[in-house]
């Protein structure tokens, strides 16, 4: 049935006919069915697809999973440096609460990717849209949580609502001076994250910093030397992040950018 469901649309009703031996393969057969069925018997299953919940692999390695409980608005979502307003409750496997922040009326406000919440939750919130509600699950040993707060390798769940968010001023609305200052500041934030071993977050900072100086046309000839130095620094630092993360194709990409900029 799990295979058939993948082919259905919301609200669709279906009748599925399968061999008894296939339908209960690897599963315990209820006594009421087993008594009157042979391996060659046909089973007819009637079912309706009423709804489903989308599950997102936030980190790409199934260490942090997000199940969308209520879809959000529009297409936009926060990025690093956004001021986000959320309400969330963290629970252990047994349902007991270990952390609760904010509410719909008085949300918890923080800056994304600034180490103000644990990295797994932070990354999940970055994938959410305004108004979205989600259930985020993760293992403690995959998100760097303090062992004094939660036990090693236990499964945590967060019920999260992204109430609102505000992004930084977009780089295309900045003048040259603002872009240089923003690039330098964001790169330094990346350096701090790199030193603490948060390589994924550091990589995102370097990517953001590079965008501020991606194009030369708004800078004077005197400023362009500083721009080039900042850009190369972002490439090299990001390559180092990718190596630490085991992303060798990513490291090669940034090293290639350095060689082409020379």
UniProtKB/TrEMBL annotation:
Keywords: Isomerase, Repeat, Rotamase, TPR repeat. It comes from the Eukaryota. GO terms for molecular function: peptidyl-prolyl cis-trans isomerase activity. It catalyses: [protein]-peptidylproline (omega=180) = [protein]-peptidylproline (omega=0). InterPro entries: FKBP4/5/8-like (IPR050754), PPIase_dom_sf (IPR046357), PPIase_FKBP_dom (IPR001179), TPR-like_helical_dom_sf (IPR011990). Residues 81-166 form the PPIase FKBP-type domain. It is an enzyme of class 5 (isomerase). Its EC number is 5.2.1.8. SUPFAM superfamilies: FKBP-like, TPR-like. Coiled coil: none annotated. This is peptidylprolyl isomerase. It comes from Eucalyptus grandis.
